[in-house]
Amino acid sequence: MSLPKGELPPNRARRKTKVKRVTTLIVAVSVFLSMFSPWLTSTAQAAPGNYLIVLDPGDGGVVGATGPTGLQEKVVNLDIALRVRDRLVGAGYRVIMTRDSDNPVSLAQRVDIANRNNASVFVSIHTNAVSNREVHGTETYFSSRGAPYGFHLANHIQSRVVINTGSQSRGVKDGAFFVLTHTTMPAALQEGEFISNPDKEALLRTDAFRDKIAQGIFEGIVNFLNEYGAATISPTNYTYRAAYNDYQRTPSSLSPGQQVSFPFAVRNLSNFTWSSSPPNQVNLSYHLYDSRGRMVTSLNGLRSPLPRNVAPGEVVEFTATIQAPTSSGNFTIAFDMVHEGVAWFSQKGAGMERRTFSVGGVAPVAPIILAVAPSPAEKSPSVSKE
Fold this sequence. Notes:
By secondary structure, this protein is of the alpha/beta class. It has helices spanning about 10-45, 75-90, 105-115, 150-165, 180, 200-205, 205-230, and strands at about 50-55, 95, 120-130, 140, 170-175, 185-195, 240-245, 255, 260-270, 280-290, 305, 315-325, 330-340, 345, 355-360. It folds into two domains: about 45-230, Zn-dependent exopeptidases (Aminopeptidase), CATH 3.40.630.40; about 240-380, Immunoglobulin-like, CATH 2.60.40.10. It has seven helices and 15 strands. The strands form three sheets. Strands 2-1-3-6-4-5 form a six-stranded mixed β-sheet, sandwiched between helices. Mean pLDDT is about 80; it is low at about 1-10, about 20-40, about 40-45 and about 365-385.
């Protein structure tokens, strides 16, 4: 049978129609996923049973911050935390609450709950308040003095809370809060909105707005665990020790913002081999402190990677890189090893190697003692440099 030019036999025409329908469906699904990929992709990748989340509803017991019409922060904090808990448990995650009723819990107790249970992440949930009733917005804190990856946890939570609530983003901020600096896992403190703002207090009274904050925190935690989760499971039998040698090459003066590299050596005094491969590699890094002992780098120092795996007792030589602050003054640099996603060595009791330098022509001063000094066995490695 001959057909007009351009026509297909019925069976081929049906196949072509099916192909078009399948193609249309694929395109539609792709568009849908592209619209919601920051959340849906993470949900599909989650491995919930591997992780324990400690949720910390701020305050409790005594009356803390209250809104213009009397709404109490401690009540809002607990209610939002319970909503986050229900979402996490429903998704298969393990959750511990530092409080599940209006009972007082000290900061030390909150930290102990997280550390003793070897939590994967710690999230403290708060509501903000200031004297200026016009201030509004949401912000999330991490601490550069805390465990690694705290910034990334805070960043994920901040992003999702802003998207879910539509609140003004006040950003991710570095804060030396006790629960952030004393926990041994990635930790963040979320401030949902300002209860001191009359309009926001009215919103915080509603289930709908509390749900939006809770959903944002939930999504932020899940997204973080999907991206960095493998790095949050800490070995419990490791000892962290290192000895450093900068060959007296750490500069005594730098220009503002100047970056320099120089030879460096480290001896592995730990009881495990330092890996040079992600995700849990060991790197050399540092902390910077000003003349008053305050940390001045928001994300700690630059990382200097090891060139190879380093067995216990071995010395490895490589190039270290540091960067000066942009402001002038006297500074102390404290070299510290970091087991990525697990711990800074100094958090585990290891000593840091300290040097002082000036920025902008200011004469250097004696170093500030910031942590436990190295034991005699942890002094600089006995390696020579020609």
